Amino acid sequence: MSSGFATSRFSRGLILTCVVLAILAAVAPVALPTLVKQMTVFWVMVIIAYTWDTMGGQLGYNSFGNVVFFGAGMYASAVLQIAPFTDMAAYTAAGEQGGALVLTNAQYFAGLLPGLLVAAGVGFLLALILGFAILRLRGHYFAIGTLAAGIFVAQIVANWEYLGAGSGLTMPGFPGKGAAGDQAKSTFFYYLCFGLAGVTFLFLQWLYSTRFGLAANAIRDDEDKAEAMGLPTGRYKIIAWAISGFFLGICGALYGNFVIHVDPEDVAFDGAGLGVWMVLMVVLGGKGSLWGPLIGAVLFHVTKELLWTYLLGLQYVVLGLLVIVIVVFFPEGIVGWLRQRFPNRFGERVEAGEVR
């Protein structure tokens, strides 16, 4: 059984919805060229929301350390894109004063692809390692453990001179100059982030329709009972976190190239920003649902952009009020509210032969 408005693996409604969204997303940069940067960040938000829900929503393990995989992927990609073409230590020592590394088109894309692959592997392996160490904890202890892991890794990177330490590092410049080059860069990474969001969505839709989805929900509902029935809960938890780390690693690499300058605490391991936002988006949309993270990302990102534009200085106050309203009036999120209000249309249903 999968989560969402309907539980069939790839129903006609789901396919139609995905096609419509894909068409709208594909033409968005052409229709709204001045908003490409904001829309690129939106797809990043969608990805981090879905990867957080894999643990926090499906399994009920609220993690505050997922940003570790995001930042680790960003720095892993940076090393693969910079080190083969220049002295990494000298480059990072120069900081922003040295400017972005200028590469040919062939060099840039020859470094980008391996960087993305390594970022995925680093995120995956780091999640496995941390999973074996932290996933023995439960409840608040797990949340605190993941928060500590995020701070620990961030401080290591912030003091690592080879990676630029606290000053961060600058990713290689995207081929192209001037306003046209900047627009080309934004459009290029828009489509990559959109593609990654689509792959993440479809993969998780398939994953939740398998026995993994049933096992995850059993762990969320009563882990002790699931263990007593012979379910290898530890294995499922580690797999879920490793999947999150895989997609977050790629997402971090893309975002690092998009923003160009990578700061260890304000960009790569931004626990107070991205680390909190990924939780808020899922809570807003609805935990443990297929559509909840997407809906939450849309509402949160639009609200955030409006607040940063028209209420700069009070944006965090308004966001705090928004969180209070959500918790009080929509404790199950938008999707949860729809399921309770309109169970015949949005409630879950189980179909024969659905679980594979």
Structural class: mainly alpha
Strand content: under 5%
Q: What is the residue-mean pLDDT, rounded to a whole number?
A: 89
Kindly report the CATH topology.
ABC transporter involved in vitamin B12 uptake, BtuC
Outline the low-pLDDT stretches: 1-8, 350-355
Rounded to an integer in angstroms, the radius of gyration calculated over CA atoms is 20 Å
Number of DSSP-assigned strands = 2
Q: How would you sum up the major sheet? A: 2 strands, antiparallel
The H-and-E topology, N to C, reads as HHHHHHEHHHHEHHHHHH
- The coarse overall form would be globular
The order of strands across the largest sheet is 1-2
**Tally of contiguous helical segments:** 16
Question: Share of helix among residues?
Answer: over 70%
Classified by CATH, the class is Mainly Alpha
From the coordinates shown, what is the CATH architecture?
Orthogonal Bundle
Task: Tell me the domain tally.
Answer: 1
How far apart the termini lie comes to 9 Å
